[in-house]
Amino acid sequence: EGHGREDVFEGIDLSRSVGWFTARYPVCLAAQADAGATIKGVKEALRAVPNKGMGWGLIEAQAGQALPRPQVCFNYLGQLDASFGGLFGLAQEGTGESFSPDAVRSHWLTINGQVAGEALRMGFTYSPAIHTAEQVESLAQAYRAALDAVIAHCLAAEGGVTPSDFDIDIGQDDLDRFLEEIL
Question: What is the pLDDT of residues 100-125, one digit of tens each?
C-alpha cells in the first residue's frame, strides 16, 4: 500500500493538497539466501511497479472477484515525526482496538509499520479465528530477528546499487561483475 504523496507524475504538485491518495497493489517479494541479494531484489521489484501502484484499483475493479485476495497486507506509513510540527503531534494515549473482533477482515494478517519517536514500530493485526496470539507473537519475533539481520548487513556492507539506480537495461549479476571490474 502506498500513500500517493511521492512524485509519480511530472507536473502534478500535491504540496497544497490535504490527505493521502492511497494506492494498494500486489507485489511478490522473493527472499534470497543472502541478505544483500534479498535487499536488491526487493528494491528492484518495488521500483518495477508501474506508477507506484496507481491504476491497480481499476484493474482490480474490472476483474471483480476473479482475482485472489492476498492473505497479507503490509503498510508502511512512513516517518510520522516529520509529518507533524508546531501545534500538532501524535497523541500519547492508546487508541484502543482498530477492528471489532467480529469484523470480517480483508486480509488474514495486516502489518503496519511507522517511524515515530525516532523508532520503528510495527503492528500486527490478525483474526483470532485464523491465528493465535502465540503464532503472531512468534511471527513478530522472527520478523524482528530478520530485520536485525538486515540492519547488520547494511551496516557492514559496501554498496547496494541495482540496475534501476542507473536506469539501464542490465541484469544484477552483470552489473555486479562490471562494478567489481572497475572498483
Answer: 777 778 889 999 999 888 889 999 99
Are the C-beta atoms of residues 28 and 72 closer than 8 Å to each other?
Answer: no
Phi then psi dihedrals of residue 111, to 5 deg: -115, 120
Would you say the pTM of this structure is higher than 0.70? yes
Strand pairing report for 72-79 and 109-116:
parallel
First and final CA of the chain: distance in angstroms? 37
CA distance 158 to 28: 26
Strand arrangement, sheet containing 119-126: 72-79, 109-116, 119-126
In degrees, rounded to 5, the angle at the alpha carbon of residue 109 between the alpha carbons of residues 137 and 115 is: 75
79 closest CA partner among 139, 26, 153, 3: 3
Phi, psi angles (nearest 5°) of residue 140: -60, -40
Calculated CA dihedral for residues 166, 168, 169, 171, nearest 10 degrees: -30
